[in-house]
Design a protein that fits this description.
The complex is a heterodimer of chains A (about 375) and B (about 290). With about 375 residues, chain A is of the alpha+beta class. Chain A is about 25% helix and about 35% strand. A six-stranded mixed beta sheet of chain A has the order 6-7-8-3-9-10, sandwiched between helices. In chain A, strands 13-12-11-14-21 form a five-stranded antiparallel beta sheet. A four-stranded antiparallel beta sheet of chain A has the order 2-1-4-5, covered by helices on one side. In chain A, β11 and β12 form a beta hairpin. In chain A, about 40% of the residues are buried. Chain B has one domain: MetI-like fold (Orthogonal Bundle). The relative contact order of chain B is 0.13. The chains are: A alpha+beta (about 375), B mainly alpha (about 290). The interface between A and B is medium-sized, with 32 and 24 residues. The complex binds adenosine-5'-triphosphate and magnesium ion (MG). The site of magnesium ion has 3 residues of chain A, from α1.
Chain lengths: ~375, ~290
């Protein structure tokens, strides 16, 4: 197994830079997910690694080999496309065997390999069918089969599940995870579904506008987003962000949001602040409905309660800013949630970002 | 068609269309029927104007006369050579040409496409073309006829457009699988383009089969004449043959029935090809490979 390392990798179309010098080290056997809003350059990054797009600047290494100038077929990578790209005129068997046939692999070996792969993916009974006669999930599996049959060093996935319905997507997600556990092939996976990112990734790379905003394990990104962009991207629903004014009152940091005062965790960068503008980040699931010993109350205007079953989303406003809360229902009963007027916030679960740069101010330190 | 689902206006419209299509079909079909009927009728019946739809005094005399001429069989053979050789060479040029012109990475793609399209509207004209063929030593040869008309801009552009409609991910997937351009063309594009290629093949075959003018101009040697030119010769010869044209003795076949018999012989093979190619026309071959 090989790792992949990108250094200052750049893509320009004419004078427009769509990928702006990305540095990324992917370890052997790692499952890395690229997420980011539409148009941020995820696919372009992946396609440069695949060799389908020329690299304008910087280098890409697979293992120790620089592959900038290497043809796609010699990079030993396999890609699963969003639209599957199955050959409609070939049977499932021939679709999976295509790459091996091109490489003039021995016929017996081909039959053996394709059958093995079909077995792994539960496609054995469909081998003689044409893609048109398969369901969406089965086609998706054939597309994966085509990638794994060659035993490549790297798997690339470009939004492979985005054409499936929600249920099938969950199922295929688990299947991809299982497959990775088994085959342990280094994988790079593009998605803009952050649940896919959270569940599949060893590490997530959050991209925005051709740059990497943050790289980290799902929990690192969830707990310690480096800026408001990542905070707003990871988590579902994402972190609430409120504009606030911070004052240091006798060593106790207090943020004023609307008319409420919220106690903040101890943050060095905010020591001795007076009237400093910040953005306070609070995750929907970190809000308390009952006061605790350390929490501060905050007044809200409740607009709407959405029931999801065991959980409910409270859409509220704090100082004219939307604020979402995730709360437990009582076995689906939300009558107690309809009456909420005050929320309670635990200082240690608050993130604080600089209002100008959006950068996190040294995440809460417990001393 | 369940007419109950249509409004009155729609029904009226549908009926009008059917009537028009019916009339059109009749008007194109009738000449065929007439010629066939004439070819099986006696010369006398035709001259006296009795033949309209069915043969009168059925006889094979006209065919007997046509098929017993060795030059007829020779012309037949030549037409097959020109048609199949020509179509083969045409496809050999058109398919890779269309593929190249459809590739985004082709350097100067717009220029090349323009150059090909240009020939659809402008060409040097007959005399320069003839002189060109002469100077290349392509007069009076099978090869000249086959190669001289092998490339057709319209067909190239037709196929290029079809190729451009094939999703890029097919090409990309094949490239990642290690296929080079020839393999992409051969294993992916051609199988996916069967309907388009069938259409073009039919165009080529029909054009070659009916090719008349240039064959007449470029070929002197009687042995190399295709059927259409032979047909013209026979008609001209028979017309010149006063005795034959005016003879009433020869009631079994006449100028008209012999001409009709040659026509039937020259039409039947091309009619028989169509059903073989037709099956590709209504096949939704792109179905299911990519998810829209
Ligand atoms: N051939 C091209 N010429 C110019 N710009 C291009 C070209 N291809 C892509 N781009 C631009 O590059 C940017 C990145 O595109 P890319 O496909 O990588 O986005 P993405 O992150 O994959 O988005 P999505 O989530 O919508 O798939 C986009 O702004 C796009 O408009
Ligand atoms: Mg994309």
């Amino acid at each position: 197994m090989s790792g992949v390392s990108l250094s200052k990798m750049t893509k320009r179309y004419g004078i427009v830079e769509v990928v702006r010098g990305i540095d990324l080290e992917i370890k052997p056997q790692e499952f890395v997910v690229l997420v980011g809003p539409s148009g941020c350059g995820k696919s372009t990054t992946l396609r440069m690694i695949a060799g389908l797009e020329e690299i304008s600047d910087g280098t890409v290494k697979i293992g120790d080999r620089v592959i900038n100038e290497v043809a796609p077929k010699d990079r030993d990578v396999a890609m699963v496309f969003q639209n599957y790209a199955l050959y409609p005129h070939l049977s499932v068997f021939e679709n999976i065997a295509f790459g091996l046939r091109i490489r003039k692999v021995d016929k017996k070996v081909i039959t053996q390999s394709v059958n093995d792969v079909a077995n792994t993916l539960g496609l054995t009974e469909y081998l003689e069918r044409k893609p048109a006669d398969l369901s969406g999930g089965q086609r998706q599996r054939v597309a994966m089969g085509r990638a794994i049959v060659r035993h490549p060093k790297i798997f690339l996935f470009d939004e492979p599940l985005s054409n499936l319905d929600a249920k099938l997507r969950t199922q295929m997600r688990a299947e991809i995870k299982r497959l990775h556990k088994r085959l342990k092939v280094t994988s790079i996976y593009v998605t803009h579904d952050q649940i896919e990112a959270m569940t599949l990734a060893d590490r997530i790379v959050v991209m925005n506008d051709g740059r990497i905003e943050q790289i980290g394990t799902p929990m690192e990104l969830f707990n310690n987003p480096v800026n408001t962009f990542v905070a707003g991207f990871i988590g579902s629903p994402p972190m609430n962000q409120l504009n606030a004014i911070v004052n240091d009152v006798d060593g106790r940091l207090v943020a004023k949001v609307g008319n409420s005062l919220i106690t903040l965790p101890k943050i060095k960068a905010l020591a001795n602040s007076s009237n400093r503008e910040v953005i306070v980040g609070i995750r929907p699931e970190h809000v308390l409905l009952q006061a605790s010993a350390t929490s501060s109350p905050i007044a809200i205007e409740l607009e709407l309660v959405e029931t999801l079953g065991s959980e409910a989303l409270l859409h509220t406003q704090i100082a004219k800013t939307p604020f979402v809360v995730k709360a437990e229902t009582r076995f689906g009963d939300v009558s107690h949630l309809d009456k909420v007027t005050t929320l309670h916030i635990e200082p240690d679960l608050i993130k604080v970002f600089d209002a100008d740069t959006g950068m996190a101010l040294a995440t809460a330190i417990q001393d | 068609m369940n007419m109950n689902l249509y409004s009155r206006g729609d029904k009226f419209f549908a009926i009008c269309i059917m009537v028009l299509v019916g009339l059109f079909t009749l008007s194109t079909l009738y000449p065929f029927i007439y010629i066939a009927a004439v070819s099986f009728s006696s010369g006398f019946a035709v001259t006296s104007g009795q033949v309209t739809i069915v043969p009168i005094d059925i006889t094979f005399a006209a065919y007997d006369r046509v098929l017993s001429d060795p030059m007829f069989w020779n012309a037949y053979k030549n037409t097959f050579i020109y048609t199949f050789g020509g179509t083969f060479v045409s496809l050999l040029i058109i398919i890779p040409g269309a593929y190249a012109l459809s590739r985004p990475q082709l350097k100067g793609r717009r220029f090349w496409n323009f150059m090909v399209a240009f020939t659809m509207w402008f060409n040097a004209g007959m005399i320069p073309f003839f002189l060109n063929m002469r100077d290349l030593g392509l007069l009076d040869s099978y090869f000249g006829i086959i190669i001289g008309f092998a490339c057709n801009a319209f067909n190239i552009i037709l196929l290029r457009n079809f190729f451009e409609g094939i999703p890029d991910s097919f090409t990309e997937a094949a490239r990642m699988d290690g296929a080079n351009d020839f393999q992409v063309l051969w294993k992916v594009f051609i199988p996916l383009s069967k309907p388009a290629i069938a259409t073009i093949t039919l165009f080529c075959i029909v054009a070659r089969w009916n090719g008349f003018f240039w064959a007449m101009v470029l070929l002197q040697d009687e042995d190399k004449l295709p059927l259409q030119v032979y047909l013209r010769r026979v008609i001209a010869e028979l017309t010149d043959d006063e005795e034959f044209v005016s003879s009433t003795v020869n009631a079994l076949y006449s100028f008209e029935t012999v001409t009709a018999a040659i026509m039937v012989c020259s039409i039947v093979p091309i009619l028989m090809i169509y059903p073989f190619i037709q099956k590709y026309f209504n096949k939704g071959i792109m179905l299911g490979g990519v998810k829209e």
